[in-house]
Structure formats: C-alpha cells, structure tokens
Amino acid sequence: MRRSLGRGPAADDVVAVLGTLLVVGAVCGVLWWLAVDPAEYTKTRRGGGAMGEVDLSKRFNADGWYAVIAIVAGFLSGLWLSWRRQRDFRLTTLLLVPGAALAAAAMAFVGGVVGPGDPDAALSGAQPGDTVPVALEVLATSTYLTWPIAVLFGALMVLWSSPGVPEPRRGSVQTEEQPPGSAPENHGPTEHSPR
Q1: What is the pTM of this model?
Q2: Are 118 and 41 in contact (CB under 8 A)?
Q3: Is 135 helix (H, G, I), strand (E, B) or coil?
Q4: Residue ranges of the domains in the chain?
Q5: CA distance 75 to 22
Q6: C-alpha–C-alpha distance, residues 86 and 162, integer Å
Q7: CA dihedral in degrees (108, 114, 120, 123; nearest 10)?
Q8: Which residues face 49 on adjacent strands?
C-alpha cells in the first residue's frame, strides 16, 4: 500500500511561517523605499562624486527607517503567527528565527531593486553639478538583527498572555496527609469537656 504524499501539520507550519515572513519582508522593502529620501552624490569636474553633510546623514537615515519598519512588522508578524499557529508552539518559535532572516534579506533585496540604481553608472553619464541618488542599502549589518529580535518579542507576548497550566477545580484539591481515594476525615465540631 502506497503512502499518500500529503503534507502534515508540521509542513503546514513551516510553509505558513516562512512564507508569511518572506512576503511581509518583501512588502516592507517597498515601504522602506517609499519612506527613505535617498542621499545624493554631486558630480564633480574631475568626474567623481562628492557628498555633503546633509546627504551623509541621509545615508544613515536609511538604516533608521529600515530598523523602524522591521521592528513594527517583525513584532506584529511574530505576534500574529504565534497566535495563529499555536498547535505546536515550539516549532513555530523555532521557525520564527530563520523566517525573520528571510524577511530581513527580502526587505533589503526588494528595497535595493525598487530603489535607485548603481550610482557609479549614473555618475559616468552625468554632467558636472548633476546629482545622482545613492542605492538603497543597509550600512550597519547589526540593523538586520531588528527582525529576529522583534519577531521573538512578538512571540513572547503571546506566550506571556497564554493561560498556561489550568488551575485545579475547587473541591478536587488533595492534601499531602490524605492519599488519593481515601475518605475525607470528619472535621466537624468537637466537644470539649472541662477538667
């Protein structure tokens, strides 16, 4: 008898978590491109590009916007995925880290693709005094850590808010002195005789 090749619950969790984070990362790449005002090189007479202080600060603003978008999207997606995929919370939590890495890479890739092109190629065809936008990229590699940290924090919020171990029902509490199945002792009123 041949076994069917249907997907099991664990495979569904893998596809759901990794696929969702990949799509969210790609959407965030477009949002990142829309939020960032790119820095610009100014073509010099010698043929190179110069950048002033304002444009230098704009280059670091791109990392700031990346981090802000990643923190919000990562937290919300970690919260939502952990809440929706509670069948195997451990598997879901383990999948959130590689999923966050996929989202971080997808966000950087999509932002770079839809953002300005290679500034060197644009500078070669520009006239002196023309400005050329810089490609959208993450400068500080530690910025990529915002995705997994935010996703795991969202998962922790679900874990902290879950009911956990249910409280025992009233009347079913057993004391240490009374073994299970034994009749309860009579603790009614006792008479006290004077001496």
Answers
A1: 0.70
A2: no
A3: coil
A4: 34-161
A5: 15
A6: 10
A7: -150
A8: 43
- Residues 8 and 11: their CA atoms lie apart, in Å, by 5
Place of tokens 């990643």: 70
Start-to-end Cα distance in the chain: 86
As to burial, measured by CB atoms within 10 angstroms (0-12 exposed, 13-18 middle, 19+ buried), residue 96 is buried
CA 175, CA 137: separation in Å to the nearest integer? 64
Taking the mean position of all CA atoms in its chain, how far away is CA 153? Answer: 8
Strands (DSSP E) found in 25-117? 40-43, 49-50
Q: How far is CA 58 from the centre of its chain?
A: 25
- 41 three-class SS: strand
Reading the chain (195 residues) residue by residue, the pLDDT tens digits are: 444 445 666 777 788 889 999 999 999 999 999 999 887 777 667 766 666 777 777 778 889 999 999 999 999 999 999 887 666 678 888 889 999 999 999 999 999 999 887 766 666 666 666 677 788 889 899 999 999 999 999 988 888 876 654 455 565 455 555 555 555 555 555 555 555
Contacts of 116 (CB under 8 A, 6+ apart): 38, 122, 132, 133, 134, 135, 136
